[in-house]
Amino acid sequence: MAGGSESKQEEEALGNLIVHFQSYLHGGTSSLLSTLPTLIVFPVYKTVFRQQIHNTSVHKAVAQLYREGPVKLYRGVAPPLVMRTLNGTLLFGLQDTLLRQLPPSSQNVISPKALPALAGFGAGVVEAVVFTPFERVQNVLQNSQNDSRLPSFKSVLLRLKAEGIALGYYRAFLPIAARNAFGSSLYFGLKGPVCVAVAEQGVSPMASSFISGTVISVAVSLTLYPLSVLVANMQSQVGGDVKGVIACWALLWKSRNRSLALLYRGGSMVILRSCITWGLTTAIYDRQEKRSG
Which parts of the chain sit beneath pLDDT 50? Predict the structure, then answer.
């Protein structure tokens, strides 16, 4: 009897491990499949980046990229493609793991409906720790002012290494952690309720997931867009006078003439990109979760 009990416990443990692993696998797969739209809309992303850095109109940003030519158009595309796949693996998997690890007593303090958002917040913090170096390299590569000094991917890595961990690879970590944590919290907190509300209108499950991912991405992108602008400006420069987060924000706000309209330049393109990628990611992930039971 004891042997049978131990065998049953081992089977249950193995089953739980498989369930835990599936969330990582499904998150990575859904993000991998959405990398094609990421590749297609990368010129849009780069246009937004130039607007964030140089405070130019979309027409001037496009003209600047056109003059640089198609070879430089996709300079810096590798980090976001790698990030996109690994990001989904870590974000969905870790959020599911944290959600399962929350003690039952936490439901006495926090509403059960808020627990996915809490787990998402924790996953976002870990995500920032892992992916800040990727974002730093990406932003340095996309800044055309660095082309002559840092012409290759290897040269960027060597220069950032020489700068040290904090100023090199982890520049702007605090705003990235805030953006990712709150963004993940909003996504996982709203994902279920929005999907249910859409499904009640008679929409198919996959369409409901896509619409919910799209709607949430709009809300998250618009809310946290200023932090993305701050991060881009802090991370795109290498060397020079290094300022803290508050000082950088003050300079950024002053450079935008203290105007929200100028601060949100490129925001419409961020919505377009997010709608495609997060709508697809959410739909594919939910479909895989339902198939696995």
Answer: 1-3, 13-15
